[in-house]
Amino acid sequence: MAETPATPNPPETLQDMKEELTAVPPEAIAPVEMVQKVKIVKHSELPYAPPARFQSGKVKDFINKLLKERLGSLPAYDFEAAPALCRELADLVKYEIRDMNLPRYKIVVQSVIGESKNQGFQFASKSLWDPQTDDYSFGSFLNEHVFGVVGAWALYLT
């Protein structure tokens, strides 16, 4: 029959437990010359500021023009065609923003299309961002048959 190895006695008091946990062998402590030096970098030395800014006015004009072209010619709201049209609108806005050549920006676009039956609609968003570098733009369209809202956010990746 094999003998099981003896287990050390557990500490009996809190003081014994503290001494056991805080006991560090001298070879585990590194000499000062072995500790690597930490380099401190000032915030002003980092490549933080974007080379170009998101032009929210230009994007808003594009969104409004696009919504008027695509939704203004619809004879009525079609719930089967609305999902594809939402994706198309979002993609067109995203490609237009990408053509602005904004390096290190994350582009997020959301589009909503619905039937207009004299009811109200509210569109809200919340974001956590840096107001020095990040921006957004919204555009909307409304006629007697359909409404549409497109929002675009440009977030600078630091």
What topology emerges from the helices and strands here?
Blueprint: H1 14-22, H2 56-72, H3 82-98, E1 105-115, E2 135-142, E3 146-156
Helix pairs in contact: 2-3
| SSE succession | HHHEEE
Work out the strand percent: 15-25%
Structural class: alpha+beta
Q: Return Rg in Å.
A: 30 Å
In short:
By secondary structure, the protein is an alpha+beta fold.
Description:
The protein has 158 residues and is of the alpha+beta class. The protein has a domain at 56-119 and 130-156: Tctex-1 (Ribosomal protein S3 C-terminal domain, 2-Layer Sandwich), CATH 3.30.1140.40. 27% of the residues lie in helices and 19% in strands. It is built from three helices and three strands. The chain has helices spanning 14-22, 56-72, 82-98; strands at 105-115, 135-142, 146-156. A three-stranded antiparallel beta sheet has the order 1-3-2, covered by helices on one side. Strand 2 (135-142) and strand 3 (146-156) form a beta hairpin. The longest helix is centred in the middle third of the chain and has 17 residues, at 56-72. It is elongated. GO terms for molecular function: dynein intermediate chain binding. One of its GO terms (cellular component) is cytoplasm. Pfam families: Tctex-1.
